[in-house]
Request: fold
Amino acid sequence: MSRGARRGMWAALTLLLACAGAAPPRGTLPVLTPADTDPAAGYERPRKLRASDLWPPEVVRGPHHRVLESVSTDGFLHIYAIDSDFGAFEAAGDLSLRLHVQDIRALAALRDVAESAAFRAARSRARTQPFVARWNLVTAPVEALVGMPPEAWREVLRIAGLSPGERSPDEVRVRRGVAAFEATKRRLARRLGVNPYSLNGVLQVELNRVAWVCAAGGLSLERLPSLAESSLAPQPEDVIPADRLARLYQFDSPEDLRRRNRIELAVMGLENAMIDAFLEHPAYSPRQQTGVVESLVAIEPARDRAAYVKVALRAATPADPVLYLMNALLLRAHHQHVAPVERIVEVGPRIAAAYTEERKLVVPAQVDYLLWTRPTERFVRRVAQADPAELEITAREIWLSGTASALARREIERLGIRVVERSFEQTFRRLAPAEDAPGG
Reply:
């Protein structure tokens, strides 16, 4: 088969997978109607946005993707449309766009190495391994996070349940092979600057294929370009520097992460039903769950941390977990660097806030550019009217990850709420040395 034909077949496969896994309509964020942005009602209409005005050229267009020039908004986040060699995607938010573009860069690198002679030779060697051959792990890779079909995973779990003395030599080899695959997949994803447990099915298929060929066939990871240093997508441990979180991500498998998360949530006092619902939620990847759980661990001894999980369970689409994860990271940053959180409170069906020792109600909100629309007004009024039992609130604040329009700021402040823009930057600015300090 010619190189061009292989590329065509590969593109057709990934396009099929992308269509099968296309994101459903957003659940947490609104779809604006004309009435929501009617100036006669005091709201503002979204201005026309262009991707080239918001991003540098390398984000807007690359050899394997193109961000459509017209950018819409739901009043909270920018909504992007992306065409790529691997299908069409919608990205809800600036962070989501960066994640998608980095995934596309990684997919291109994986595709290129899969077309090399070295890969074909290593794939042939991998297929001599009985477990790899039995489950077609390199010829028919699956998008499962564990890198194998359910039946194969049950075999692995059965072997893991045996004592070392009970395992046959073949079972010992299977266990070692799976451990090598898991470690290789994490190193591979780290080299490419992507999440090894991403819910992007297209990416999972190719990560699994190449990781098995590397682990079982001896293909060197050095054959893939290192994209991590030029990654466009920050990972949670980059946003909130945390050695423990970085170690968990580096060394723990999806099952290890879920097991740790279960223990931590139980220690917080969550009921088993809520723990099960969160850890089995189809919208969250194990890493997203771990980022949320580790953030809740970090705000100990705050009360009612189950309230955050209750709100996070309302994630309805693949875009939602990113919002809940980033909000959890912001609460963690506030607790550690601004003022301790005493309690988590549920302000609305999809809104969790922190009550601090300063008796402030702090509401994190992931936005790119906040407009004053009807959904924004509903959100703000919930914050203004929130009256958690037995809590004396002396101030209310909304901490935005991005910025707000002048009208939105004015209307929010009119309701007695302080607006903090670029909240992650504001939080960590407190840790920076003063300009006139010695050595600053």
About this structure: Residues 236-429 form one domain. Residues 47 and 72 are 9 Å apart (CA to CA). The chain has two domains: 3-223, 236-429. The chain is about 50% helix and 15% strand.
